Amino acid sequence: MAVLERAPAFTQTGAGLTLTAPAMQALAGLGLKSAALAMSDAVPSTPIFHYQTGRIFHTRGPPIVETDTDGEQKYAPRVVHRADMHGLLLDTALAAGVELIAGARLVDVEQDEHGVRAICDDGRVETGRILIGADGLRSRVRALLHGVQQPNATAVVAWRCLLPVETVEDLLGGHRIAIHFGPTAHFVHYLVRHGTVLNCVALIKSDVRSEDGWSTPSTKAELAAELEGWHATLLALVDRIPAGTLYKWPLLDRDPIEHWVAGRIALLGDAAHPMLPYHGFGAAIAMEDAVVLGRALAEATDPREGLARYEKARAPRGRQAILSSRRLGERYMGGRGLELCTLPLEDPDLFRYDARTSTIS
After folding, report:
1. pTM here?
2. Strands in 216-330 per DSSP E
3. Which end of the chain is more exposed for a tag (fewer CB within 10 A), N or C?
4. What structural domains and CATH numbers belong to the chain?
5. Spatial separation of the C-alpha atoms in residues 291 and 310, rounded to whole Å
């Protein structure tokens, strides 16, 4: 088994990552429960602050908790540094004998009765029995299966940064997590790495331009201008963001598709179901995909049969997550965010899924 990565090297990057209950159950299915618990932190009840007054006007109670099938661990959502999770998955893949090939940019795929060929831009050809396109929102594999289609724009821009907690601890009021809500924006911050780093994410309806991707540099002055009129404590936090550590990107998604599979080729993660981040669910859904894919292939006599069963099991779940995330974004960014952010979730079943026991037919 080989992983082709277009980047020149495998590096652990990113900021905070939410591990919902289904994500933790998927990690348990991969044998990574203990390691994931050790590197992450549980999400407590979350205070919601008014964007102008800086006062708490609502508290979200403990999130939906699911019980593991072994009865030993209840999974409230947890948070982790994305780089730490990347490192865990990378080490696990290496220990399992997976070959990692960096600098491999896919340009085409061919398949026949015997296997599949991945053709890279440098002329390299890798062969195998199946190919899984886990190559993100701008998936080349998806484009080869369905044609090139532009993603859906939302007029919402996200900003993110990481701060050493000692530089802002006096501004946190003892809260490990908080959301500051306005009519068409919200600013979330929470502690990762066991309270040593503050992860900050601002989602703002804005006409600010940003390049596609996760790493367009921004400045605290640009973000502060978007938050004009917000309360002084939050603006003070923004003012302490070190230069060169703030990034922005436009929020994009795609419409659901029913077919993730063509013969020996299948899509996984954002390549199959890129969604908006309002549920904090993108990583969880990709992990679920991986567990169900493994189960489907293990139970099938032919890999094409396994991929077809994987698609049948997962496409409805991907559709549900895309559309639910989109609806939640419309609720938060439609001008009534302060009122609507206090409502319960419309789709609690999103958080009751277990990839280890879900039906595969």
Report:
1. 0.93
2. 216-217, 247-253, 261-262, 265-267
3. C
4. 2-48+80-150+254-332+346-352 (3.50.50.60)
5. 10
